[in-house]
Design a protein that fits this description.
This protein is of the alpha/beta class. It is built from 2 helices and 8 strands; from the N terminus they run βββαββββαβ. The radius of gyration is 14 Å and the shape is globular.
Amino acid sequence: MGKFEIKENAKGGVSFSLKAGNGEVIGASEVYSSLASCENGIASVKKNAPIAEVEDQTIDEKAKNPKFELYVDKAGEFRFRLKAGNGEIILASEGYKSKDSCKNGIESVKKNAPDAESVK
């Protein structure tokens, strides 16, 4: 089972990472100003990940929010970001070497996020 790992940074901000059952980081959040805001971000990922469509921007697909945007970054790596219904980015991935690996990351978020517990 996946888990959301919450971390405070030295400047007082709070962020989270979603980890798969094997401990691998699937995605990370922005830095929030409070723990409550961070927990709201986690709740939003849990709510939106299972219902989000995939918008493959490498082939110019379009999808409505909530959605996963699959894209290629400046370094040529595949990445995804999960956007909530309001269009805000609530989770972003690390770079993947292949599109299939990136798609697997999206499926891992869909699978792990809904039932993941939060830990500090």
